[in-house]
């Protein structure tokens, strides 16, 4: 404690440099704290289970070139052929490819004739009874669709399926008491839709959608100008199946444009922005930490050169190397502590603004404290080498010009 008064006096004489480092530390903490929360949030989003056997699934989209194309006949013939390919577990048609960013949604209600504000939104798929096995998802309650429930309809028909299978997440949203199976949902047409099955999980079409995981499936084929399939291969045989599917579809009907992708590619594209943000913010965190370390090293070396005479006098009066090193480390700790205290307040203010305006995650106290301790450790580590160098200054060298 006896060093505190001369330390504060020295800092006051060099207050501009000390203030710059403190402000730099404060800004670094504010940025690093909020960036860390965003990185954690994006990493958690990417790590969410999809509910599907993503690594084993191939998606197909085709567009016929002739105007009188028989979609329902082509779908049946294609799927029969695809299921006979060695390595294929199952295949089904689908209105949209999962996690592709392309999909449709609908508002659902617990009672007919409800106000639009009372509804809950879910991603919807028109697909076949094979979709559970083709996607590798798990039916945890109820039953699958039956062939008799399958319908072919034109979008102009405004068809409403009498049955649906929903994800557990959406079932819990609609019926928090846990009795969703056998209950009825309603859309804007007010036709009752019975929940006949519940699957464990399906992320849906939009991975960045706040309601991702709210999904409902209908047993139907929409008769439109193109078709889509999802095909699940045995583990390790996806690429082999992909080539076979592409060749056989082209052989069966060469008068259409076929586009094939793996669901892994859809996954990577869906999370491309999140992955980019994680990389950019991680680089920003590393760069800012490096810059603040360089600033502390430079400032400490500068102060040591300015105080060589003072250090020499203290050594001549009996100060040990440990005393000199401790002096500069404590001085650095005082500056860092001031900057971190200011930075913690700035981090909370900045986070409140981001939460209010950009729907970013809140900054927990635990994350802020962890970032503060890391920056404090970096500050002390950066000052360690200059402090050790100051301790090696001999009294004779320091006082030679006196």
From TrEMBL:
<dbReference type="GO" id="GO:0005886">
    <property type="term" value="C:plasma membrane"/>
</dbReference>
<comment type="similarity">
    <text>Belongs to the ABC-4 integral membrane protein family.</text>
</comment>
<feature type="transmembrane region" description="Helical">
    <location>
        <begin position="362"/>
        <end position="385"/>
    </location>
</feature>
<protein>
    <submittedName>
        <fullName>Putative ABC transport system permease protein</fullName>
    </submittedName>
</protein>
<dbReference type="InterPro" id="IPR050250">
    <property type="entry name" value="Macrolide_Exporter_MacB"/>
</dbReference>
<keyword id="KW-0812">Transmembrane</keyword>
<feature type="domain" description="MacB-like periplasmic core">
    <location>
        <begin position="49"/>
        <end position="247"/>
    </location>
</feature>
<feature type="transmembrane region" description="Helical">
    <location>
        <begin position="324"/>
        <end position="350"/>
    </location>
</feature>
<keyword id="KW-1003">Cell membrane</keyword>
<dbReference type="InterPro" id="IPR003838">
    <property type="entry name" value="ABC3_permease_C"/>
</dbReference>
<dbReference type="Pfam" id="PF12704">
    <property type="entry name" value="MacB_PCD"/>
</dbReference>
<dbReference type="Pfam" id="PF02687">
    <property type="entry name" value="FtsX"/>
</dbReference>
<feature type="transmembrane region" description="Helical">
    <location>
        <begin position="280"/>
        <end position="304"/>
    </location>
</feature>
<dbReference type="InterPro" id="IPR025857">
    <property type="entry name" value="MacB_PCD"/>
</dbReference>
<dbReference type="GO" id="GO:0022857">
    <property type="term" value="F:transmembrane transporter activity"/>
</dbReference>
<feature type="domain" description="ABC3 transporter permease C-terminal">
    <location>
        <begin position="283"/>
        <end position="395"/>
    </location>
</feature>
<keyword id="KW-0472">Membrane</keyword>
<keyword id="KW-1133">Transmembrane helix</keyword>
């Amino acid at each position: 404690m006896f060093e505190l008064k001369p330390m504060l006096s020295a800092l006051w004489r060099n207050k501009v440099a000390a203030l710059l480092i403190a402000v730099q530390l404060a800004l670094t903490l504010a940025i690093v704290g909020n960036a860390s929360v965003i990185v954690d949030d994006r990493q958690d989003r990417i790590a969410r289970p999809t509910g599907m056997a993503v690594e084993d699934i191939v998606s197909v989209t085709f567009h016929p070139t002739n105007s009188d194309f028989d979609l329902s006949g082509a779908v049946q013939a294609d799927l029969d052929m695809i299921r006979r390919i060695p390595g294929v577990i199952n295949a089904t048609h689908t209105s949209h490819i999962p996690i592709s960013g392309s999909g449709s949604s609908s508002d659902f209600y617990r009672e007919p004739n409800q106000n639009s504000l009372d509804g809950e939104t879910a991603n919807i798929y028109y697909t076949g009874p094979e979709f559970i096995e083709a996607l590798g998802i798990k039916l945890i309650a109820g039953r699958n669709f039956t062939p008799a429930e399958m319908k072919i309809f034109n979008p102009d028909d405004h068809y409403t399926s009498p049955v649906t299978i929903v994800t557990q997440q959406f079932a819990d949203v609609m019926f928090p008491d846990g009795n969703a199976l056998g209950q009825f949902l309603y859309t804007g047409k007010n036709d009752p839709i019975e929940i006949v099955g519940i699957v464990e999980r399906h992320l849906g079409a939009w991975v960045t959608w706040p309601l991702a995981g709210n999904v409902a499936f209908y047993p139907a084929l929409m008769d439109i100008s193109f078709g889509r399939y999802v095909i699940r291969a045995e583990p390790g045989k996806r690429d082999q199946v992909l080539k076979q599917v592409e060749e056989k579809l082209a052989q069966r009907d060469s008068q259409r444009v076929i586009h094939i992708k793996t669901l892994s590619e859809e996954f990577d594209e869906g999370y491309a922005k999140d992955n980019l943000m994680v990389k950019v913010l991680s680089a920003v965190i590393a760069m800012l930490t490096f810059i603040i370390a360089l600033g502390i090293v430079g400032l400490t070396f500068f102060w040591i050169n300015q105080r060589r005479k003072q250090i020499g006098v203290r050594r001549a009066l009996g100060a040990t190397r440990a005393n000199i090193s401790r002096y500069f480390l404590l001085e650095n700790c005082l500056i860092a502590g001031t900057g971190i205290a200011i930075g913690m307040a700035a981090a909370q203010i900045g986070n409140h603004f981001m939460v209010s305006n950009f729907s970013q995650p809140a900054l927990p106290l635990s994350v802020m404290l962890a970032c503060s301790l890391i920056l404090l450790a970096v500050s002390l580590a950066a000052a360690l080498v200059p402090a050790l160098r100051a301790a090696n200054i001999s009294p004779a060298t320091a006082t030679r010009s006196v």
